[in-house]
Design brief:
Length: 513
């Protein structure tokens, strides 16, 4: 991207939303919560850590989110299966202005919130666009709800599940302070609880069979605030009332007084409380007063391969229980989504299953009815002036990340993410990703005594590969590192001078927002 350095500690630099036009490539400020960012092409500015989360489908317009993606390397080992895509619903929010240039990449939150940011799409990467056009959700009949409101939400764009968030590349990945203690949740045999419903048997179960298993554990979420209403999807995580959804779906109810209502397929409506949430991973855990729920099992997303068939369930445009299908079309997509003040990083699973506004927070499952990801965003064509819904490019948060993060949220109320403690130079246009040769806005190129420093990473090093996989942008480095857990080791292949060296780095830890 452009020409700004990025801090590995926090992730790719974020592009601020624009009300009239997108900034020219290379001029967007690259920021990261709690760290300094470089603005313009050479000016440094301290960027405070904003604390207002994005909304799934805010009543006001929000800029579309840009997607940072590069062609991921397919995982080996699993056999392909039929895929299914997630549904979406329409939110009652104004459509943000179209980007000024046709090359602007747009990513829409699956929750229906739209934001926009400019970024240079990776070679072979998808162009992102606006989320589906907003629309008021029609009443679905009598419901046991204490408050009524027209709820509209679009959760199905590549705007990484962040309501009103902006997707962009964030260059700050690892210079933040590391936690003294690593909040690692106590081990549990089944993070998502024991699923009492028999799993679908056979390698080629039908979509109908999978839907029968998944729909009863998929919920419709509505957030009612004095400013308006929004909605999205969620799924049962544990039998004792724990649910998981995208953070952007419920952000409006966290940032201000509001009510979060959950409607179950059996017609029961419960008021939910927020156990914990993180914008960095765009996940939130809710709890309702029920102990008779059937949790959906989480699959090992590390075993997912391109071509695997999948099914998505959600409430696109408010249409609860919508089922779509497709395949896993790509893996390891470097996706960043959110607003100008907050960004989520996802090493996403890409699917051609139909995902539209309203699908945010819903499950993407394999043909055994196991969750491989949480639907969060969709891509839209460049130059799109209105959200058009699915174009066959949907993105989901891998289940392994969901398991680790939700365990932390339930046990500690917050989550953490891994860092390497180096500043990445976003202005580098050559091969690989350059470690900045100097500090920016008070942030050193190499955090003293940080993971990178201890491993021997030096300013001016060029990261060519991460765990053997080529990297071409700060976003890829950040998102790939974020897919690991603190304490794990990654291997950086670095060009230093005229030679190459492999450096193992034990990942540090920082508390997520």
């Amino acid at each position: 991207m452009g020409g700004e350095p990025r801090n590995e500690q926090f992730g790719p630099a974020r592009f601020g939303p624009s009300s009239d036009s997108a900034p020219e490539p290379g001029t967007e400020p690259l920021t990261e919560p709690g760290t300094e960012a470089l603005t313009g092409r050479g000016q440094h500015a301290a960027v405070p850590s904003p604390e207002h989360p994005a909304r799934e489908h805010p009543p006001t317009s929000t800029p579309p989110v840009p997607l940072a993606g590069t062609a991921p390397e397919p995982l080996a080992g699993a056999a392909p299966r039929p895929a299914v895509g997630p549904p979406a619903f329409l939110p009652p929010y104004p459509i943000p202005p179209a980007p000024a240039a046709d090359d602007a990449t747009h990513v829409a939150l699956a929750s229906g919130v739209e934001t926009h940011a400019r970024q240079r799409p990776p070679v072979g990467g998808p162009a992102l666009g606006y989320a589906a056009a907003p629309s008021t959700v029609q009443p679905r009949g009598p419901r046991r709800i204490r408050r009524s409101a027209a709820v509209a939400l679009a959760t199905g764009a590549l705007f990484l599940g962040a309501t009103g968030g902006v997707i962009g590349t964030r260059a700050m990945m690892g210079t933040g302070e590391q936690s003294a203690a690593s909040p690692t949740p106590s081990a549990s045999a089944s993070p998502t609880g024991v699923d009492e419903r028999p799993q679908v048997q056979g390698p080629m179960a039908t979509v109908a069979e999978v839907a029968t298993q998944v729909i009863p554990s998929t919920v419709y979420i509505e957030v009612l605030t004095p400013q308006g209403a929004s909605s999205g999807t969620g799924m049962v995580l544990r039998p004792d009332g724990y649910l998981v959804t995208n953070h952007h779906v419920v952000a409006a109810g966290i940032d201000q007084p509001g009510i979060i209502q959950v409607t179950f397929p059996d017609g029961d409506v419960q008021e939910a409380t927020v156990v914990g949430g993180t914008r960095d991973y765009d996940l939130a855990v809710l709890q309702v007063d029920r102990d008779d729920l059937v949790a959906l099992p989480l699959a090992d997303s590390g075993e997912v391969v391109v071509g695997d068939p999948v099914v998505a369930v959600g409430a696109p445009l408010g249409l609860e229980g919508t089922v779509t299908s497709g395949i896993v079309s790509a893996l390891n997509r470097a996706v960043t989504a959110g607003s100008a003040t907050e960004v989520s990083y996802i090493n996403a699973i890409q699917t051609d299953a139909a995902i539209n506004p309203g699908n945010s927070g819903g499950p993407l499952v394999n043909m055994s009815g196991e969750v491989i990801g949480i639907n969060s965003a969709i891509a839209q064509p460049p130059g799109t002036t209105r959200a058009t819904g699915s174009i066959g490019l949907g993105f989901a948060i891998p289940s392994n990340q969901v398991a680790r993060t939700t365990d932390q949220l339930i046990e500690f109320g917050y989550a953490t993410f891994p860092i390497i403690g180096v500043l990445l130079d976003g202005s580098h246009t050559g091969e690989g990703v350059l470690v900045s040769t100097g500090g920016q806005a008070g942030v050193p190129a190499i955090t003293p005594d940080g993971p990178g420093d201890q491993a021997g990473v030096e300013a001016g090093d060029v990261i060519l590969r991460l765990d053997g996989r080529p990297v071409t942008s700060p976003d890829e480095v950040i998102v790939t590192i974020r897919s690991h857990a603190p304490g794990e080791t990654v291997v950086l292949t670095i060009r230093r001078g005229s030679g190459e060296v492999e450096i193992p780095v034990v990942l540090g830890e920082s508390r997520a927002n």
